[in-house]
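Regression report. Comparing outputs from two consecutive submissions.

Submission 1:
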Amino acid sequence: MKSFEYYAPDSLEEAADILARFSGRAAVLAGGTDLIPDLKRKKRAPECLVNIKNIVGLRAIEEEEGGLKIGSLTTIQDVIAAPRLSGVHGLLRQAAVHLATPQIRVRATVGGNICHASPAADLAPPLMALDSRAIIQTPRGRLRLALDDFFLGPRRTALGPEDLLVGLTVPRPEGAAGTCFLKIGRTKMADLALVNVAVFVELSRADRRCCQARIVLGAVAPTPIRARRAEEMLVGNMVGHDLIEETARSAAEETQPISDVRASREYRKEMARVLTVRALRAAVDLAETAAAA
């Protein structure tokens, strides 16, 4: 492992100064469950390591107007245990319990899982399905960026060399909504997704037609992707068995999977279709229940 300078700032301002000084040559340490193995394997060789664990206020799940705010240092175990993550926000808990092992979940952070930008990241699809936005501290001030625009490629994000992800906002839908997250891996637990999918469906209380839908697939393209053509097929329609099957086929056609040692391209495409069918059925059932309440 190459030697590096180490800093543990106590404030965002101090962290920003360090990132500016090393512009592009620093790595941010949160939980370290991805970064430390990368350093040991020499996949990364930063000149500086910035441990942000001491910065107060970045580990929290808080109510805010219109939804929730999740700090970037919130651990995966915090997500699982959070009482505020109920209703549609429970989608995040569904994904978190499938992420790695209990030993990793107590250290791994929400921000780290997002910033690592793995196409197979388990939290990215549910956060995108819930229309979340990244809260980014930049040298020019704080901005909010839709997660749809955050991921640029494998291990590539919209963060600049001096930017820091400080949290995420997750809106609360006003209508009758249902969600579902599903994942398939080579083993039942503690494995990267071969395919994962998160679905959000909102129905009109008046006529039960779909008024909003988001279908997000992971591990089937260079980034987590919205199946936008499939989403458009649902909006404005009554969502029944035939439409769900047709929509899932469309979603699978929008994927761009690869073949590797873990699964073939054809298998991933078929599993994208199958998981989308199952997720849509579950989400629509929940939305129907909410509409009837």
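Submission 2:
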Amino acid sequence: MRPSILFPLFAPVTRLAGIGPRIGELMARAAGEKIVDLLWHLPSSIVDRRHSPSVGDAKPGEIATLTVRVLKHEPSPPIRSGRKPPYRIVCGDETGFITVVFFSAKNDYLMKQFPVGEIRIVSGRVDEYGGGKQMPHPDYVGTLEQKSELAAVEPVYRLTEGLTPRIMRKAVSAAVAMAPKLPEWADPRLVERQKWPDWHAALLAAHAPQLADDLAPNTAPRTRLAYDEVLAGQIALRLVRHQQ
């Protein structure tokens, strides 16, 4: 009954690049065992990285994408026992200073990531600590040349313990890229009246929200997908009854 064009979508999630057995188990717990399950694992919120203030204008509690110069490193002192102090990197621009903080990272790695005197793009939540600003464990670190690779808006998906947002986003993105374009099956008059996109366009839009309002269940892409889900269930039930 299933068209051959859909066969790849019903393969296990471990067929996706970078998803081994252990991550596959976590994926199954969070979304489902098959690649197609990731298509219906829609974003629950977004992270908007379009806010790019100066360091002086960055406010504690907000997500900000900052362009800073690396000024100095304050490595964690060696300790024999107990909790290791954080590694601090002082950065800034002409308007102020901010400390980038890491609680579990190797010193040599951070020295390479943040060369003193170089410009870096850091994106994450700004906090206030000890009367100054800090950004603990930035979500993104890159050079000026890499800034164009930074997603301005990131979808946020439901997770389970041990599964990181980056792995989930990558897996869902790969699954959505596998979704084929299919002929329209809905009543054209209904599609026109509801101003719905086709199934493929609705799927792409649902996984690429740009505003918080795009997550609402009454948006055109989400109502289209919901209609298709109900329609598929009714057709499946009708086929079963017909066979019986």
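Expected: both submissions complete independently.
Actual: both completed, but the second showed a warning that disappeared on reload.
Relevant detail on submission 2: The helical segments are 21-30, 35-39, 107-113, 165-178, 188-194, 199-206, 220-243.
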